[in-house]
From TrEMBL:
Record-annotated FAD dependent oxidoreductase domain positions: 33-402
Signal peptide positions on this chain: none
The Alpha-glycerophosphate oxidase C-terminal domain, residue ranges: 439-500
Essential cofactor(s): FAD
Recorded family membership: Belongs to the FAD-dependent glycerol-3-phosphate dehydrogenase family.
BP GO annotations: glycerol-3-phosphate catabolic process
Sorted UniProt keywords: FAD, Flavoprotein, Oxidoreductase, Plasmid
Annotated transmembrane regions: none
Name used for this protein in its record: FAD dependent oxidoreductase
Taxon lineage: Bacteria, Pseudomonadati, Pseudomonadota, Alphaproteobacteria, Hyphomicrobiales
The keyword Lipid metabolism appears for this protein: no
Length: 521
């Protein structure tokens, strides 16, 4: 088998190579300005913005870029209506929790601004989706209040990306194709229709962001874990481990963007008492709904007040989320039968005429969202922000909590400003968004597309290739019909023997059926 290049090989920076007592090789590089820990969208955005600001940056991810929470989301560039709804309760509720209400309004503004920015910069990565919200006797709001809410949202981004609000009368709502079969349709008060944007492929957005940063000078290592963090004078020594061995690097600052594992990384730095994160699991199921809902999104609330969506996904819909507390353990990234049953039950209550059963679920996914820990240490808070832990005993150690795909560029800017308050960059600023490179056959498994994924974009597994470098892993069978061809094309580049190739195929099939509860018959 041809090994992956050793961690101690030279890059654009000079390195001293040494040998550990157990024969593994490691290296001490020239000092990095920043080491970014994590490979999700917040880490990618942090690396991109820090590099553009002139900071010599290394990004390290223990799995693959975009393989964790960034891949297991609602896949929506939300307009922020949910935050505004949470902030616009009664006056008594506002007076009781003014900080929370103000934070919700701030999140709405940042969501709208992030929406406008991303739709302008990467229109090929999103598509508009019409959503409809039925106004039932339980949730109906006055028309003036709905219009005011949408005017506030439109003002937040200067009206750059239209929301296309339309308020339907009760008669119009009862006749709307997407509401046919809904329980309580006769008593409906009306409906709201508006435009959201859906990410075609959030995993690719993460990879794109990392690759743009690499083209700008950032170093990045996937499939490389952080095993140690220790102060050494005015620097941080970061111990990295990959299949090829271990490596130590030095950094002036550490930027911890490890998502739901943020507290785990902070504990490695010697501060297990500092907790800023809590996990919230969200589960979705994928089903085929009636033709009347094709291409239309549906949004409502559960009896417990949680948002519940039917979101178009090609000819299918994904439905959920079903939320529960969780941490970063692997089982948090798998849907349970109880969660699938709960979503089916909720869907059956909304649309009893659909008559969907467990065998109608094609597959499911689950992810653990990182949420900012509430000030009292119990539960989560609607807070998305950077934290500088210098005054808590961790000099030049920064973390980000509550990170969201839809505001990732804002997160990158905020973290860069936080670092800049402590450290000056060692290099000159660079252009933030390098021109996108031509990517061959991203929707096909070809010699060119696989070679590009492995040789230019650091793909090392079949999942890396089929789900995050190419889009075929999100076809209805989740890429199973492509796996053998992909393996044959990958083997020469990574030096897989026939036995290793067969094992890689088996790994992909097992991962797909296990992580996605894929129905195979």
């Amino acid at each position: 088998m041809t090994p992956r290049p050793k961690l101690c090989e030279r890059s654009h920076m000079e390195r001293e190579c040494h040998c550990c007592g157990d024969g593994r090789e490691w290296s001490v590089t020239e000092i990095y300005d920043t080491v970014v820990i994590g490979g999700g969208i917040i880490a990618a955005a942090a690396g991109q913005h820090l590099t553009a600001a002139g900071y010599r940056t290394l990004l390290v991810e223990r799995g693959d870029y975009g393989a964790g929470t960034s891949s297991k989301t609602s896949r929506l560039q939300h307009c922020g209506l949910g935050y505004l709804s949470a902030a616009s309760g009664s006056i008594a509720a506002f007076l009781a929790h003014p900080r929370s209400a103000i934070e919700c309004v701030s999140l709405m503004r940042r969501s709208m601004q992030g929406r406008a920015e991303f739709v302008r910069l990467a229109p090929e990565r999103v598509k508009p989706v019409t959503f409809i919200i039925p106004l039932t006797p339980e949730n109906a709001i006055p028309r003036w209040r709905a219009r005011l809410a949408f005017r506030l949202m439109a003002a937040s981004d200067g009206g750059k990306v239209p929301l296309n609000l339309r308020i339907l009368s009760a008669e119009e709502a009862r006749a709307h194709p997407a509401l046919q079969g809904m329980v309580g349709l006769k008593s409906i008060r009306g409906a709201m229709s508006f435009t959201e944007y859906q990410y075609h492929w959030p995993e690719r957005i993460v990879v794109d962001t990392v690759m743009k940063a690499r083209a700008n000078g950032m170093e990045a290592l996937n499939h490389t874990a952080v095993r140690g963090l220790a102060r050494e004078g005015d620097l941080w020594r970061v111990t990295l481990t990959a299949a090829e061995g271990s490596r130590d690097v030095l950094a002036r600052a550490v930027v911890n963007c490890a998502g739901v594992w943020i507290d785990e990384i902070t504990a490695l730095a010697g501060a297990p008492h500092i907790r800023r994160n809590t996990g919230e699991k969200g589960t979705n199921i994928v089903v085929r709904l009636p033709e009347s809902l094709r291409g239309v999104g549906f949004e409502t609330m559960t009896a417990a007040g949680a948002p519940f969506y039917l979101i178009p996904w090609g000819e299918l819909h994904y439905v959920g989320p079903w939320d529960s507390a969780s941490d970063g353990r692997p089982e948090g990234f798998r849907a349970t039968e109880a969660e699938i049953a709960a979503i089916l039950d909720q869907l059956g209550r909304l649309f009893p005429s659909f008559g969907l059963k467990r065998e109608d679920v094609l597959y499911a996914w689950a992810g653990v969202r990182p949420r900012s820990l509430a000030r009292d240490g119990k539960g989560s808070a609607p807070v998305v922000r950077e934290h500088d832990l210098t005054d808590e005993g961790l000099p030049n150690f920064f973390i980000f909590t509550g990170g969201l795909l839809m505001t990732h560029r804002d997160a990158g800017r905020r973290l860069t400003r936080a670092v800049a308050r402590r450290l000056k960059p060692s290099g000159p600023p660079r252009q933030l968004d390098a021109p996108s490179l031509h990517l061959p056959d991203m929707d096909q498994v070809t010699e060119a597309s696989v070679a590009h994924a492995v040789l230019n974009e650091q793909a090392r597994t079949l999942s890396d290739i089929l789900r995050r470098r190419l889009s075929v892993g999100w076809e209805p069978d989740l890429g199973l019909r492509h796996v053998e061809r992909a393996a044959k094309l990958t083997a020469p580049h990574l030096g897989w023997t026939p036995d290793e190739m067969a094992a890689k195929i088996a790994d992909f099939i097992d991962e797909t059926t296990t992580e996605f509860n894929l129905r195979t018959s």
